[in-house]
Amino acid sequence: MSRPHEAQRPFFPFGKNPFRMLSPKSSQLSSKLLAVLNNFEETLAERFRKLDPKETGHVLSLSWMELAMKSLCETHSDVQNLITALELPVCDWEDKWMDVYLDISVKLLDICNAFSSEISRLNQGRLMLQCALHNLESSSSEQFVRSSSSLDRWGQHISSRNPRFENCGSILESLMESLDLPKVKNSAKGKVLMRAMYGVKVQTLFVCSVFVAAFSGSVKKLFELSVSDTYLWGLAFSNLLTSVNSSIRNRPSSGRMAIFKELEAVDANVKKLSPLIRSGEGTVEEESVRSSVSNLHRSVDCLSQGLDLLEREVDGFFQIVLTGRDALLSNLRANCPASAQMQKNNVER
User: Fold this and answer.
1) Which GO terms describe its biological process (predicted)?
2) Residues 52, 115, 263, 50: what is their CA dihedral angle, to the nearest 10 degrees?
């Protein structure tokens, strides 16, 4: 994996909306804590607004998915800043939170690996297309046959299922269940932390569910959640969720596995080119073939660039989760010897 993000915290497993009734203006919080919390929530609200298809103009696309994953990484970075601002020692966190955190962070690593595996599979298909385009540079009929074979193999490959991606649905279900897990103890700093962590969990589940839908072609696992408007980001998230989920559900099916527009463009160009070269009548000199080859070339380049950029962001998120686990366990070993042994046993298990 690339692009390590040092000293950043990953997705934390705290309780489901534990402060539904806690207003951002709650008298229980000092002005300093309110400022820290409000800054975090307003920033999160702005990120949700920037992801709304009404603003970006498209969903689903690799560029939107890259933006969504980048936004998620930024939110996890903000959590680290919030923890630093709160000055809440790890030893003040309860052991049950640590158990759940380690369990959920493993699931996030698993889902990152599944995303990376699917991107690699799509890149393998891209190589088949590049082979076909290379063969089409020749005017020989033999090369045309090879090109046709490469296009057929690409169609079979892209329609197949990735075994490593099959368990993403169950991982998502498990993460959704984590929204209803142990609640925070009664402290002002704890309340701010829990509120912020709820926002992180919601964004993480939303982004991961969209990725699963995009890669699998199935809308069954799209995230649904009603968020209280006591959160400064609640309305922005509700608008985003409605807009994205409806856009995905209303997209016409291409008959392929994935449903993002860069792959759909490649598929459309392959379907247009294949009959021309399969007939044996076309040559590269013919305008229709030249035009179709050119269109396929552009769409493959666009797909390649999008996959490379998305892979970088997924790798970055993997590093955030992994670095967070290491940082947490190091902190425990250094400052909480008793808890450290319990966590060591947890990790080994």
Assistant:
1) root development; shoot system development
2) 10
Domain spans, the chain = 31-348
Distance CA 296, CA 22 (A): 54
**Contact assessment for residue 47 and residue 75, using Cβ atoms and an 8 Å cutoff:** yes
- Which of these, 65, 32, 62, lies nearest to 51 by C-alpha position? 65
Inter-residue contact 293 to 284 (CB < 8 Å) = yes
Report the C-alpha gap between 195 and 40 in whole angstroms: 10
139: region left, alpha or beta (phi > 0 left; psi from -120 to 50 alpha): alpha
Q: Which residues contact 29 (CB under 8 A, 6 or more apart)?
A: 37, 188, 191, 192
| Cβ pair 159, 256 in contact under 8 A | yes
pTM, two decimals, is: 0.83
pLDDT digits (tens, 9 = 90+) for 152-210: 899 899 888 888 888 888 888 888 887 765 566 667 887 888 888 889 889 999 999 99
